[in-house]
Design goal:
It is built from seven helices and twelve strands. With about 290 residues, the protein is of the alpha+beta class. It has two domains: about 130 residues, Immunoglobulin-like, CATH 2.60.40; about 130 residues, no CATH class. The strands form three sheets. Strands 4, 5, 6, 8 and 9 form a five-stranded antiparallel β-sheet that branches. A hairpin with a 5-residue loop joins strand 4 and strand 5. Helix 3 packs across helix 4, helix 4 packs across helix 5 and helix 6 crosses helix 7. The chain is elongated, with a radius of gyration of 25 Å. It starts with 16 loop residues before the first strand and ends with a helix.
């Protein structure tokens, strides 16, 4: 840890802590590379592992801590997409290699994930030096890392919420609710759409608790298809929407263009088919999206 200003107590000297590489992965085995975690979505948890190697007696002595003092390794995180932050349970630092692992819920993440591993004082010693760290939680070493979860094509946020308590869906037992909070096709899509998942619905709650199970994957695929279908129909019913307009990337209009253009048909023809034979049009949309297994 490189200190720019004095923190008022002794900290770990350079080279006294040897960290291992950050390991950021998905439960299905995908791993982060070059600061990007591919194939992540809001239904997928993120696994984080990192090791630190120390000669604990020597480290304690360098900071003026007596042998019975205790240090812990703590992992902190912040998600820019949801602006949520938290800390994983600290792990007591041992002589040699200490491994820190953490599993972050996919529904709480999005955008860029900022990570920081800290070594902190967790228990004062019986005969510490006057300049030794003395407050529980004093940071004696830290290291930070960033990983992008969504690349450049961010998806709209998914928010678990109990419909009975929030009043969404009339407070009834609906499983999900797609909310579009703007009529402006030039507005940013990510900032104006939310997919609310009813955490009080048994199937949804089960999928959130075990997103990697076969049953959950099938269920969540159905949710994603329905979201795409709703946006497709929403676009066709907007008379001010056009496939020819030059919408900025990531605007609501641009997102709708990407969805509608999958069928490769003129907009007016699609609108006519929606009115005359919506079932056949939806069957064709199922085929082009590939979300219905």
């Amino acid at each position: 840890m490189k200190n720019q200003i004095s923190v008022g107590y002794l900290t770990a000297t350079e080279g006294s802590v040897t960290p291992g590489p950050w390991s950021i992965s998905l439960p299905n085995g995908g791993e982060a590379k070059d600061g990007l975690l591919p194939n992540w979505d809001y239904f997928t948890d993120v696994l984080i592992t990192r090791t630190v190697d120390v000669e604990l007696p020597a480290l304690l002595a360098r900071m003026g801590l007596s042998a019975d003092a205790r240090l812990s390794a703590a992992l902190l995180w912040h998600s820019t997409g949801t602006n949520l932050r938290g800390a994983c349970p600290p792990v007591r630092l041992t002589d040699g290699t200490t491994e820190v692992t953490c599993r972050l819920a996919g529904g709480e993440l999005g955008g860029r994930l900022n990570l920081e591993l800290r070594i902190i004082l967790s228990h004062r010693g019986s005969n510490d030096h006057a300049l030794a760290p003395h407050r529980i939680g004093n940071v004696v070493w830290s290291d930070a890392y960033q990983v992008d979860l969504e690349g450049h094509g961010a998806r709209f946020p998914v928010v678990p919420v109990d419909f009975a308590q929030s009043g969404f869906g009339g407070g009834r037992r609906g499983a999900w609710y797609l909310a579009i909070s703007t009529n402006d096709l030039t507005a940013n899509a990510i900032g104006n759409m939310r997919l609310y998942l009813n955490s009080g619905h048994p199937r949804t709650a089960s999928a959130l608790a075990a997103p990697d199970s076969e049953e959950s994957l099938q269920y969540l695929s159905m949710v994603l298809y329905d979201v795409a279908r709703q946006l497709f129909e929403y676009a066709l019913r907007r008379q001010d929407f056009s496939l020819e307009d030059d919408y900025e990337q990531d605007s609501l209009g641009h997102v709708l263009q990407q969805i509608v253009s999958q069928l490769g048909q003129p907009l007016q023809e699609l609108r006519l088919r929606l009115e005359e034979d919506p079932g056949e049009l939806e069957a064709e949309f199922q085929a082009v999206t590939g979300l219905v297994d």
